[in-house]
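[step 3/7] fold_predict: job queued, chain A
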Amino acid sequence: MGRAFGKLTRVRHVITYSLSPFEQRAFPHFFSHGVPNVLRRIQASILRVVPPFVGFYLIYTWGTEEFEKSRKKNPATYENDH
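[step 4/7] structure written:
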């Protein structure tokens, strides 16, 4: 009933290699190379990433405080009301 999927056409002059999943190591050198690499990359980019977040956080908290202040009524305005 036709060719199987993955072998629909014949490609000439292309060499493909594959390795059995049973012969691969899923996490080679994960702790010895991976963790230090992550720490190095974080250290290299922290000065570019953190300042905008801190700035936006300070602006957001200031704006929220100002908004809450503007919602409150001034009690001195209503002292003489009965």
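[step 5/7] annotate
The CA atoms of residues 32 and 38 lie 11 Å apart.
The chain has a mean pLDDT of 87.
exit 0
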